[in-house]
Amino acid sequence: MATTQQEKLVTLEDIQTAQQVIAGRVQRTPILFSATLGERLGVQLHFKAELFQKTGSFKVRGALNKMHHLTDDEKKRGVIAISAGNHAAGLAYAASQYGVQATIVMPEFAVRSKVEATEYYGGKVVLYGGMADIFPKMLELQAAGGLTLVHPFDDPHIIAGAGTVGLEILDDVPTPDYVIVPAGGGGILSGVAVAIKSLRPQVKIIGVEPEGSNALTQSIKAGHVVNIESNKTIADGLAAPFGGALTMAHAKRYVDEIVLVSDEEIIEALWLIMERCKVMPETGAAAGFAALLYRKFDFPEGAKVVSILTGGNVDRSRLKDML
């Protein structure tokens, strides 16, 4: 699912424009300071709480920015996407704000609560096969209906919208040493990295992928977009079935390091956040803190760290299993 705009990287100006576009349509999510967890690791630890965002994740930011840039004809014909959950809900909500019909193809195993949320926001959900099957099905429906594809991550407007999280981080924590970003396809990692590196080039940007679903890492290593045949991770929000040409290019230029965490490490990080911070992120959102907790990258004593909690759409049945 390669981008058609891979030659042009997103700029700080693109992200600042996106911030103006989505102003008043999204929540200004807070930064949470965790003294207890920070002391445990010897750092000044902050969490950017995107789990309090509309639709429960950062995804709505890019979706709103994308809707703004559609032509009138594209809006009339409608949009289509693939998603395991958060992009589906974010796009459905954003499309409803612009009077656009959104169709989202989701795998049959998609979290039921995420399917219901997407439908609640006005999206038309098509459940079909597994992660390897939904893209061909989406192409079929796109051609039949003349719909506009809204890529879940490999689109400049999506990346710019997600990058507004980075601008907000610097407003609240002006001089971080590290910003840790969970990565599925890499949209928010790309946008945040551009925003922060453009304004604070000394800040280290750390991307985090699950060991069982690391399409971005594999794509960078191979030098081309890699498709994953089977995603095996508890972090469904990070289970991208392929990498992206545009996100790969951003990561190579702006991201200092991408590390991998196991499902067991993610679960432990999730419980610590719930116990100590009294918030409930989804598994993928806890991946960033897992990388810090298990010291997957080097950081000095006293470092000022921001870990992005990308979403809070927890599946009840999976939560029971983890208990």
Walk me through the topology.
Blueprint: H1 12-22, E1 31-33, H2 35-41, E2 44-49, H3 59-68, H4 72-77, E3 79-82, H5 86-97, E4 102-106, H6 112-120, E5 124-127, H7 131-145, E6 148-149, H8 156-172, E7 178-182, H9 187-199, E8 204-210, H10 215-222, H11 245-254, E9 257-261, H12 263-277, H13 283-293, E10 304-309, H14 316-322
Parallel strand pairs: 2-10, 3-4, 3-6, 4-5, 7-8, 7-10, 8-9
Antiparallel strand pairs: 1-2
Helix pairs in contact: 1-8, 3-5, 3-8, 5-6, 8-9, 9-11, 12-13
Commentary on this structure:
The protein is of the alpha/beta class. It has 2 domains: 12-58 and 155-322, Rossmann fold (3-Layer(aba) Sandwich); 60-149, Rossmann fold (3-Layer(aba) Sandwich). The protein contains 14 helices and 10 strands. The strands form 2 sheets. It has a 6-stranded mixed β-sheet with strand order 1-2-10-7-8-9, sandwiched between helices. Helix 12 (263-277) packs across helix 13. Mean pLDDT is 93; it is low at 1-6.
